[in-house]
Amino acid sequence: MAARFLPVIRRGFATAAKEDIRQIGNYPDFPAVSSQVKSPHGFWDPQDRRNFGDKVHENDDILSGWVVDTTYANGRVNNKQAFRELLTALALLAGLYGLASFVNRKDRHPARPRDVPKPY
What is this structure's pTM? Predict the structure, then answer.
């Protein structure tokens, strides 16, 4: 015997209010724009880049200028250039260390080695 499907009857239930996923009430939903990409000019507070009395974003601690940089040198340096500059700085430090080690060799110490015997 073939299975028989019964029609689904939809009833007009009262719908609940839309669930507030953010759970912050009627606080405005601002776009997530980091303050590092905003121009520092034209704001009451150029350091945090906002005006007096402005409401802050819900994630202001993440979008403030005091977190890890979201852009390098205001967009003028890409990741490849930043990595090349880092390697250049490390190579210069290694070269300076090598030069200092060469100039300050063990056989060029001005002090005389100790004449006392070792205690053991």
Answer: 0.43
Residue 65 neighbours by CB distance under 10 Å: 15
Q: How far apart are alpha carbons 39 and 36 in whole angstroms?
A: 8
What whole-number distance in Å separates Cα of residue 72 and Cα of residue 111? Answer: 49
pLDDT in tens, 50-109: 888 888 888 888 877 777 776 666 677 888 888 999 999 999 999 999 998 888 777 766
Q: Residues near 83 by Cβ (< 8 Å), separated by ≥ 6? A: none
Half-sphere exposure of 103 (CA within 13 A, CB side): 6
10 Å Cβ neighbour count for 62?
12
3-state secondary structure of 47: coil
